[in-house]
Amino acid sequence: MEFRDLKTQYQVLKPKIDAALAEVCSSADFISGAQVGALERRLAEYVGVKHCITCANGTDALSLVLMAWGIGPGDAVLVPDFTFFASGETVASAGATPLFVDVDPRTFNLDPARLEEKIAEVRSRGKYRLRAVVAVDLFGQAADYPKIEEICKRHGLLLLEDGAQGFGGSIHGRRVCSFGDAATTSFFPAKPLGCYGDGGAIFTNDDECDALLRSLAVHGKGSMKYDNIRLGVNSRLDTVQAAVLQVKLDAFCAYELDAVQQTAAWYGETLRGSGLKLPVVAQGFASSWAQYTVQLPEKTDRALLQERLRQREIPTMIYYPKPMHAQQAFAGQDGAASDCPVTEALCAAVLSLPLHPYMTKEMTQTVAQELLAALEEAAR
Ligand SMILES: *Cc1c(COP(=O)(O)O)cnc(C)c1O
To answer: Can you give the pTM of this predicted structure?
Structure first.
């Protein structure tokens, strides 16, 4: 069994993908080809924002936004403690200080109450200029933007939505990547909408920010490529990736997003009442199910459980084994001192199960049965 079955997806989409790739190769328009602009327009429309700026990957997307906002030394940015490293890494790479905020144990996302506390704490200490909040849509579910947007507005903080895992999700019909002052996503192959390599995008309604990002992503270009009015980076989405993404976006909208929601529902049916804590989707929210992550009972030997499942050819993953504040890269910095007990407990208990749009009901039942059998064996 595949954790995320990109091979089957390719077999299903093969005629269209192969044709799209052949077209790019024939045109030899490998950089900034027509497919890139066409994809940006489609993505902006799908998400419901004015501008989409594609770039080389989801990490660059975060960095470019921080760059556009002029975030650097002396600034602090609040980041959830339970996320992929890039959410905080990019803040530190910009020269600013990431400070970590604990999450909600049910949704895995930034806890608005803890965010309020952290803002008060950082402001009263006065060591940093608090500039922004990065909120992450972990495992496919949007963070609590109705509350987080209000908090950021009230405190004069910029809000960056890291939607790398959330693309396709929504809150009361408003799509992921439309929240905050800018939002980013990743097209890493295993994300909800993935390409055949690295890729990323930024979304914003701000015209000035859009212009600045387009300049920063292409060596700080001015009126043209060889007129360089500021320092930037080289971060573009390849035409080949844009062509693949157009085909994948069709499938994503037509049936893949519905399929993962069905798969998650099947898991819910078979695993409910089993003693596992199942993922919770908040009222009015829709998840794009980047991951299906359960929490194991406290006395489970997780390594043994994974090994038993591996023997039965069921791959599982641990997203994430370590809180951000405990990462060695932040050792000795103020972020390392963050107090995040919920994240610590989650890191010890989480297990992500295979989930993708090409899973059958039988496959989810097999995973559930094997998981419950292995759970008994691994109870300490
Ligand atoms: C994957 C991911 C990123 C980085 O995306 P890349 O395209 O791999 O650079 C950033 N944030 C989160 C939450 C992610 O899951």
So the answer is: 0.98
